[in-house]
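Worked example 2:
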Amino acid sequence: MTRIGLSNPVAVAVGCILLVIFGLLSLARLPVQMTPNIERPSISITTGWRAAAPEEIESEIIEPQEDQLRDVPGLQRMTATASQGRGSINLEFDVDADLNRALIEVINRLNQVSRYPADVTEPTVRVGSDQFGDTMAWFAIQTVEGNTRPIIEYQDFIDEVVRERLERIPGISSATPRGGRPFEIRITFDPYRAAAIGVDLTRIGSRLGQNADVSGGFQEVGRRQYTLRFAGQYEVSDLENLVLDWREGRPVYLRDVASVERLMQDSTSVMSQNASPSIAMNVIGEPGINVLEVMDALKAEVESLRVSHLEPAGLTISQASDDTIYIKQSVWMVATNMILGMLLAVAVLWFFFRKFRATLMVALAIPLCLCFAFLVLDGTGRTLNVISLAGLAFATGMVLDAAIVVLENIVRQREQGRAAMESADRGASQVWGALLASTATTVAIFLPVIFLQDEAGQLFADLAVVISAAIVCSLLVAIIVLPTASYRLLGDAELVDRHASWWRWSTDRVMALTDTPRRRWGWIAGLTVVPVLVGILLLPPADYLPEGNQNSVFGFIQTPSGMGPETAQAELVNVVNDRLRPFLEGEREPAIQNSFLGFFGSGAFMGIRAVNEDEVDELLEVVNNEILSGFPDTFGRANRRPIFGGRGSRNIEVNLQAGDFTELLAAGQVGFGAIQQALPGSTVRPQPGLELAEPELRLVPDDRRIAELGWTRSDVATLIRALGNGAYLGDYFDGDRRLDVILRGEDWLTPEELMAMPLSTPSGRVATLGELTRLERTAGPNQIRRVDRRRTLSLQVTPPSGMPMEVALETLATEVEPAIRQALPPDGVITYTGTAEALNETLGNLAGSFVLAVVILYLLISALFRSFKDSVLVLLTLPMATVGGILGLRTVGLISGQAMDMLTMIGFVILLGLVVNNAILLVYRARDGEREGLSRRDAVESAIRLRLRPILMSTFTSLFGMLPLLILPGAGTELYRGLAAVIVGGMALSTLFTLLLLPSLLRMNEERVPAGTGEAVPA
């Protein structure tokens, strides 16, 4: 390939130009995201049932759906939640599951659920989770000044206009408005008047069911065809004229016992933006989208809606959060670091070569390899994110290695007086084998990572693909482009190594330090055994994913059981908004740019963004210690919003399961106290609450009395719902939308008043509700959680800031779990999910990948060296590299608190492929020297002298290329700083000591090995 390039330099130049053109075109096509998609395949199902308690949701909706979904192919875990008026199921699948097939299977099985109650909404199925952590943007809709209509009345308008338009945007998965109140047709009856007239309220529903338009078909009359329609549906204004019964030949109308109005539904939530009432909308994007493009389209559509629909309606819309701000900052930061790393690497080249043309030729490898990497990213369907960009930055220094070795060898041939053509050909061919070995091993270590199917594989695939592509391209550039360029550009220039004395002095020192068997054995023992012991002692505990430094605080507030929306508005939302107002208006520091706060039945959520992003930590302290404190029986905690969404939060779920739910609650209380004692400073959030504290008025039926009066349990249940939040009677289409028709009694204030309500029965007698049922005051759950079809109590633990997840898990297992087990019944089960499960899975997979990478390295080097023994010599340099990475990570951890998270762990795998390159160069050259007739000592000395310059050049270019990633602060740097620390520390330490360890290994038994018989030819 080198000779083909030398024979046709124009073709080589054209190939390079085409590569740059197509690489830049691919770069323009690549989707831009913050991070790769690392979600486990999941499908979520949501079903609504107005005014239903969690226990009814569980029995009538969740359990029948679970029964059908329990054996969906590929299902790994099924988590269900029954809350007031809503049931949801989240299905998690194996990472290699076919999600399209699973979606079809789920929909088919849901269709097999035999029946739902009449007013249950159709189940909504969507791919992916429905968590706030996956939100890409929040919008707040408020009334403009002068518009006196409450914002809560605009829910239907926003649903039908704003939501519909936003969800049409390609790349948008869902847009959900929260905080408004839809309208309904409410029939409010007077139970006393109904009883006095003798109207059986249970018959209203059947009468109303006859309220419908009916088509009678088509009839041709004369020369025209007419449609025959019976206009049987009442208008709302005429609905009061519905005839319910007849008394002495006179009709009893609905208006005689009830009023019919178009009203808003009861309030279930409260939303505010910047301490003012609003409707909030969170927008969730689809996986794999170009976030920047989708956000631009989203903003354009919002602006269009503002002008065309919102402003004429007296509304305004503002964006409360924007993920693209941090994405742009992070991408710009890593791109800047990459460019700075390139400049530093080129400066190192010039320092060694001191020739502008030689430096330029090697630096040419950087843009060519990066463009090839862009092509591969585009071809494999990857995205441009902080991880892939960091891979490009790491590759910046790595791609120079092959070019440095080739050009250094070509220059050395020129220094020995050979012609330009011969130097180019000989310089590339002599090191071809070593370069092929180092490239193959570097690429091979990424194979286990690329083929990982779990979250680690999804996260690191971009990094592995980028570096592998760049390294392969660097080999082709080194053996084709560089020799051709050197032949044309170097010309007859005289090249003198100004640092030749350094290499001779360094070689003499290394040979002197390894000159006796005792010294050699000392170096071998010290540089292989000691690093292993040091590594074991200093290996930091593992963490999962970095939270990031986004200017976004997100918090949850768990309110007391039984708190209604009106109470929450007065005692929680208004108080929090009053506390936020001085920060919003700039009267107190740190200033808040915007905030939103919402109450949604069982708790509240809030989001805050600081004016100055450097003050987020201070703002977080104020929120937790001032804004959310001091509420009785209320627990609130805010954290930075994780950049990896819901899976990136530092959240350990301790799941407790048992047959007896009362004993389960007792065990949960024990666990709650034990966790707070074992992990001081941690946040513990029980899901659901630790006691059955939802106040409940339970009406137990008297079957005999009900039957005597001519009713059934179902009839009485309908009446009780009508006397509560209302009984669903059907739908009404007003020509624009369908509205629920609700039968509802007038408000009552005490349970005694409820039980005294008179009811006209089919027997003609009037009975009170107290005659039909018995009242029991009790308490029930405000939420029911089920994991794999069993009731579950989850203690969601967020460890203190700075505590690695591995330490927290170990503490929970050794100090907390025994106490919980004592409180659990014999059939009790304790499991750990959330981040804990992902961490254990990742640690196992990465450990397996590390071992597999070492095995692949050994086998490849053995094949390339044609010796199992020589490949062992190369692998013996790995312990020193590993301990160097650990020391680098520990050092950075002392300065910035960097943990050994999942991103950092992959650095040890990358390190394997980098550090063996120098060892391969030395061993390959030493064995070549022996084959050329040199003695073992002379072969080793020649290898050190000839390869010391390219080893140091490639090491320093790699180190300086990665240095900006390590030392420069900024948005997104927390993702790759630990990774850079491992690689920089490992390469620096291994290079330093490999120059002592490998000569010691290569010179073993040199006194007993005779020199070869061939003629020694200088390389």
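Confidence is low (pLDDT under 50) at residues 1012-1019. The longest helix spans residues 455-490.
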